[in-house]
Amino acid sequence: MSGSEWTGIPVDTILATAATHGLEGIVSKRLDSVYRPGTRSRLWLKTPLRRSAEVIIVGWVASSGGGEFGALASLVLGAYDQAGRLVYVGNVGTGFSAAARRALRRRLTELAIIEPPFDRSPPPERATGVHWVSPRLVGTVEYRESAGALRHPSWRGLRVEIDPATAGLPD
Q1: What pLDDT digit, counting tens, does each position of 36-51 carry?
Q2: pTM (2 decimals)?
Q3: Which of 5, 15, 44, 55 is the 20 to 30 Å CA partner of 68?
């Protein structure tokens, strides 16, 4: 199929088609532009597809340097699989304001527990230095894909109206 067959199609249609086929997104370009390996250009634009999911906060990791001592660097996330087991789905460390990080850190301190709350342990490299919490808080994340763990997740906020028991595995 030549490039000209894709001109004149509304971008929403192209994005919907990419999503239907499980693609990461689309790349749009000017028809007269050429590809230059290793060079970014405003003539070629990547539009990633993002999904969202409700996830359970099961732990947090403190920042390792700079900034406020013991500040929240990332959240450890879980969800329930089809068998009803709480399993690891990833970490998220972006999308927070400084105020949101402080507020979450205070709230998570109140939920501290000693052992990981998972029914199936997370990868060992993801369990080091984690402050575990009771799985009571649900939040929304946006992500690109989920293949064992969320890829490129970004925090969107707490969802106090959602029961943690309903947070299933992201698509």
Answers
A1: 888 888 888 888 888 8
A2: 0.79
A3: 55
